[in-house]
Design goal:
By secondary structure, the chain is α/β, with parallel strands linked by helices. It has two domains: about 270 residues, Aldehyde Dehydrogenase, Chain A, domain 1, CATH 3.40.605; about 180 residues, Aldehyde Dehydrogenase, Chain A, domain 2 (3-Layer(aba) Sandwich). The protein contains 15 helices and 22 strands. Strands 14-15-16-13-12-18-19 form a seven-stranded mixed sheet, sandwiched between helices. Strands 9-8-7-10-11-21 form a six-stranded mixed sheet, sandwiched between helices. Helix 1 crosses helix 7, helix 7 runs parallel beside helix 8 and helix 9 crosses helix 10. It is globular. InterPro entries: Ald_DH/histidinol_DH, Ald_DH_C, Ald_DH_CS_CYS, Ald_DH_N, Aldehyde_DH_dom, Aldehyde_DH_Superfamily, Succ_semiAld_DH. Keywords: Oxidoreductase. This is Succinate-semialdehyde dehydrogenase/glutarate-semialdehyde dehydrogenase. Its EC number is 1.2.1.16, 1.2.1.20, 1.2.1.79.
Length: about 500
């Protein structure tokens, strides 16, 4: 399709398609154009304003100005706005899903599910903000009283990824706003339209000027914007979801100002199936975890460890399910697996499959790029006979490839699962309650899914350990990331 012709989807509410950034309650042009394309066919969608340091500083100034009044509002008032925003997302779910599918590629059904997931964080923190309780501590000295207060940290910044372009915004922004912070968001350059539609609905929900900013940026500008926010003393918290390499860089840039950090970084999730597992449940969990969003999730299973006694049966059933997956553009009815996000992602998936096959792995299903569908499509793939020395067992693939390794003992499975620098998500299937407790305790991961392939939820904390980052999003723990503790000591009370 021509670069001058837009392939934007038809919407019920065309005003959701915003192409300027949101700064101080106004839609503001940028310093350079950001061109957005559909990964399914490469078609041009829109030219969005890309923002640089000047606009990022303006957003920061507005956030500082808006902070005192926003922090002074009652938690109830802030919660009411979050609730209205959540309802606005749900009321516009069809349009939001169409925008998301167009620029990100995921099937419409998954995009609609993400809208509901995004709204759930707004719902949760609309209530959780009202439960930010302090403490009264009994003092050893009868002439003193101690109070422990929780107060908003201040201005916050968030850098969000392309794979969940709506939910990752609300998961970061909702607790910050509920706590009384103001927030600036830099969405991924691949998916700014979803972020801007989300911002439009935030304005309709009544968020005051300066409380929320959304600044799309080109890849080059993103580096400068991120550096500005990291180094600015006025920014007291930075949240980032993305690669471990970028997370390390951001942490180093934030170090001089000692700001709070929430880093949700790379994963390399093991998926363990023990002999005593419910086979049907294990296969269903594998499909749920591995192939959602074409395998482009930070918590999707990457390494499948299957015990010898159940290995062959598991592989046969999984192979049938994988072969039956419908691949194609996300807008088409019945599609279950859409395109990869870009050529770099496709090249990595192809390299992992080629390396495994060259070292003796067996290709049970898929394994080929689907150029007939579009440049970024790769078949849902199942590899067996995988060994620990293959790239697919060492690196995060971030694509629709399941790599199966056989193991003999529980101790061996735990050792293999933990043999990585990452520690985000892990999964295992077993009906032995003793094993459930032992393995859950032994896995070195921030999250463990037992007999399920879906672990994300607004009411539970989400995050990793080791090189997968630190800090938590979701749950009541998520709002603590945006609160400072203040100890207040009142003396001279004895008479």
């Amino acid at each position: 399709m021509s670069e001058t012709a837009s392939a934007l989807p038809a919407l019920n509410d065309a005003s959701l398609l915003r192409t300027a950034g949101l700064i101080d309650g106004e839609w503001v042009g940028g310093s350079s154009p950001l061109r957005v394309h559909n990964p399914a066919d490469g078609s041009f969608l829109a030219e969005v304003a890309g923002h640089g340091v000047e606009q990022a500083q303006a957003a920061l100034n507005a956030a500082e100005k808006a902070l005192p009044a926003w922090r002074a509002r009652s938690a109830r008032d802030r919660g009411l706005m979050l609730s209205r925003w959540a309802q606005a997302l749900r009321s516009n779910a069809e349009d939001l899903a169409r925008i998301m599918t167009a620029e990100q590629g995921k099937p419409l059904a998954e995009a609609k599910a993400e809208v509901a997931y995004a709204a759930s964080f707004l719902d949760w923190y609309a209530e959780e903000g009202k439960r930010v309780y302090g403490e009264t501590v009994p003092a050893a000295d009868p002439s003193k009283r101690y109070w422990i207060w929780k107060q908003a940290v201040g201005v916050c910044a968030a850098i969000t990824p392309w794979n969940f372009p709506l939910a990752m915004i609300t998961r970061k922004v909702a607790p910050a706003l509920a706590a009384g912070c103001t927030v600036m968001v830099k969405p991924a350059e691949q998916t700014p339209l979803t972020a801007l539609a989300c911002a439009e609905l935030a304005l309709r929900a009544g968020l005051p000027s300066g409380v929320l900013a959304v600044l799309p940026a080109t890849a080059e500008e993103s580096v400068a914007v991120g550096k500005l926010w990291c180094e600015a003393p006025a920014v007291r918290h930075l949240s980032f979801t993305g690669s471990t390499e970028v997370g390390r860089l951001l942490a180093a840039q934030c170090a001089p100002t000692l700001k709070r950090l929430s880093l949700e970084l790379g994963g390399h999730a093991p998926f363990i199936v023990f002999d005593d597992a419910d086979l049907d449940a294990a296969v269903e969990g594998a499909m749920q975890s591995k192939y959602r969003n074409a395998g482009q999730t930070c918590i999707c299973a990457n390494r499948f460890y299957v015990q010898a006694g159940i290995h062959d049966a598991f592989v046969e059933r999984l192979a049938e399910r994988v072969a039956a997956l419908q691949i194609g553009p996300g807008q088409e009815a019945g599609v279950q697996v859409g395109p990869l996000i870009d050529a770099q992602a496709l090249a990595k998936v192809r390299a992992h499959v080629d390396d495994a096959v060259a070292q003796g792995a067996t290709l049970r299903s898929g394994g080929q790029a689907r150029g007939d569908l579009g440049a970024m499509f790769f078949e849902p793939t199942l590899l067996t006979g995988v060994t620990a020395r293959m790239r697919v067992a060492i690196e995060e693939t971030f694509g629709p490839v399941a790599a199966v390794l056989k193991f003999e003992t529980e101790a061996q499975a735990i050792a293999l699962a933990n043999a990585t620098e990452f520690g985000l998500a892990s999964y295992f299937f077993s009906r032995d309650i003793g094993r459930v407790m032992r393995v859950a305790e032994a896995l070195d991961y921030g999250m463990v899914g037992i007999n399920t392939g879906a672990i994300g939820s607004a009411e539970a904390p989400f995050g990793g350990i080791k090189q997968s980052g630190y800090g938590r999003e979701g749950g009541h723990q998520g709002i603590d990331e945006y609160l400072d503790l203040k100890t207040v000591c009142l003396g001279d009370l004895a008479r």
